[in-house]
Specification:
CATH topology of one domain: Cytochrome Bc1 Complex, Chain D, domain 2
Strand content: under 5%
Structural class: mainly alpha
Shape: elongated
Largest sheet: none
Order of helices and strands: HHHHHHHH
Number of helices: 8
Helix content: 40-55%
Length: 174
């Protein structure tokens, strides 16, 4: 069945296929290469126009915004109640603990002071301090940064207005 003529045909077909593949690659490279330098190997190519995105400018002034006292003075407790919906999965306001400790009366309460809740070592070490509005703002902004090792898995509230609103709401809940 596999005589010399059959092997010659198979070898010829294989060589012919490779030749067609190589010629197709050469044709595609010729058609899709726009200049002799390739795709920027010779350095940066100047575009026809440049769009200024402002990426090189300083944005610290825009991020800074008003200070905490100014924001807290104009905080809206009703808006804070809506923001608190994110916290309800773990925290309660009825005096009972959930996944996290209850938050009724948390403003100006001593840290790690809810009986029966297992706080992290970091928060237990801060138990001499109180949850002032400024401390709550720092914790709500970045819980893991404020108290490394905290058991709170929530990433935090990045918007300063949301933080002051929820703190104002918590200040009304006793």
């Amino acid at each position: 069945m596999f005589d010399t003529m059959t092997m010659t045909k198979v070898t010829g077909a294989l060589c012919g296929s490779l030749l067609v593949y190589m010629l197709g690659g050469w044709a595609a490279e010729t058609l899709y290469t726009t200049h002799a330098g390739g795709h920027g190997e010779d350095g940066e190519i100047q575009q026809a126009y440049v769009i200024d995105t402002g990426a090189g400018e300083e944005t610290a002034a825009a991020e800074e915004g008003p200070d905490f006292a100014t924001l807290y003075a104009s905080a809206d407790a009703a808006a804070g109640e809506k923001v608190f919906a994110k916290c309800k999965a773990c925290h309660k306001l009825d005096g009972s603990n959930g996944t996290g400790p209850h938050l009724d009366g948390v403003v100006d309460r001593a840290k790690a002071s809810v009986a029966g809740f297992g706080y992290s070592d970091t928060l237990i070490g801060m138990s001499a301090e109180a949850w002032t509005p400024e401390n709550l703002d720092g914790f709500l902004h970045n819980p893991k940064g404020y108290a490394p090792g905290t058991k709170m898995s929530f990433a935090g509230l990045p918007k300063a207005q949301d933080r002051v609103d929820v703190i104002a709401y918590l200040a009304t809940v006793n």
